[in-house]
Amino acid sequence: MKKLLIGLLLVITATLAMLYRSDRSAEEIEGMYADTSSRFLNIMGMRVHYRLEGDPADSTPLVLVHGTSSSLHTWDSIVPVLRKDRRILRMDLPGFGLTGPTPDQVYGLDRYHQFLDSLFDRLGIRSCIIGGNSLGGLIAWTYAVHDSSRVKGLVLIDAAGYPRGKEEGNIGFKLAAMPGVGRVLSMFTPRILIRKSLEGSYGDPALVNEVLVDRYYDLLLREGNRVAMIDMFSSRRPAQHQQIASIRKPTLIIWGDKDRLIDVSNAYRFQQDLPGSMLLIIPGSGHVPMEESPGKVIGAMKELLKNL
C-alpha cells in the first residue's frame, strides 16, 4: 500500500509539473502580437495597447470592445474592410491582451467606464459609435447609459446583460469562476482547455485552428492576465438590465444562433427593449460571429454606419 501511495504521488507530481505554466513577460508577448498599427498609452497606471485606424477625418469613430479572455485581435477579420470608410478604435481592455492587469486588481463596469473615458479623452474622441462582443457588448450598452452624450450608436454582438438562463456555457469560464479552482488554473493551464473553450464558443468547432488557439493561449499567459481573469470572475456583479430600455440610440444587434454561452433568445430581449433596433441572426454561427462569419457582420455594420 505504501508503494502504491508513493507511486500515485509521483504520478500526480509529474502530471502537475507537465501542466504548470509560468507567466510570460509582457515584452515577450508584445513582440509576438503587436504590429506596425499597434500604439500604446499610459492610462490609469497601465500601458494600454490600442489601434486607431482608417479615415482620420471621421469625427465619430467606431469603437470595438472585445469580450472576456479575448483581445483586440478578435476584430481582425472585419477591421480591414470597415476602415476603408470609417475611423476605427479598438483596444485591449484592462486585464486582457497586451494591456494586462490593473495596478489595484479592481475590475467592474464602473472601472471600465472610467477606462474608456480616459482613453477617449486622451485621443480626443468626443463622440463615437460603440460596439462590443459578449463582455464588450455589456460594456458598450452600459457605457451608453453612463455617457449618453458621447455615444451616437450601438452595435451589440452576442452581448451580455440579461440574467443567464440554461446556457451550456464555456468550460474554461466555468472552472475559472469556481472558488479555489480558478486560482489553480492561474498556475496550471493546459492548452487543451483553451482549445475546448474556443470550440465551445464557435458554432462550427472545425473552424478553430492552431493559430487561433496559440493566440488566445499566449495572450492568456501574458504576466498577470490569468490572475486578472480570476479576480474579474470573483468580483463580477449582475448588470442592471432594466437600464437597457432607457437607451435611445440607433442600435444593431447581431447574434449567432448557435451561441452556447449567451443564448440567442437574448437577442430578441434586446430587440424588444430597444425599439427600432436592427437585428441580424446568423445561422450556424456561435458566440463570436465576427470571427466565424465576418462577411455577414460587415454587411450589417455597414448598413448601420451609413446612417451615422
Overview of the molecule:
With 308 residues, the chain is an alpha/beta fold. It has one domain: Alpha/Beta hydrolase fold, catalytic domain (Rossmann fold), CATH 3.40.50.1820. The chain is 41% helix and 15% strand. It contains 13 helices and eight strands. The protein has an eight-stranded mixed β-sheet with strand order 1-2-4-3-5-6-7-8, sandwiched between helices. The protein is globular and about 50 Å long. The N and C termini lie far apart (74 Å).
Radius of gyration: 20 Å
H and E order: HHEEEHEHEHEHHHHHEHEHH
Task: Tell the overall outline.
Answer: globular
Fraction of residues in helices? 40-55%
Residue stretches low in confidence (pLDDT < 50, at least 5 long) are 5-18
- Write down the CATH class: Alpha Beta
Secondary-structure class:
alpha/beta
Mean pLDDT: 88
Main β-sheet: number of strands, strand sense, barrel status?
A: 8 strands, mixed
Largest sheet: spatial strand order: 1-2-4-3-5-6-7-8
Tell me the strand percentage band.
Answer: 15-25%
CATH evolutionary superfamily: Alpha/Beta hydrolase fold, catalytic domain
Number of DSSP-assigned strands:
8
What separation lies between the terminal Cα atoms? 74 Å
Q: Tell me the count of domains.
A: 1
Just name the CATH architecture.
Answer: 3-Layer(aba) Sandwich
Number of helical segments with 4 or more residues = 13
Instruction: Kindly report the CATH topology.
Output: Rossmann fold
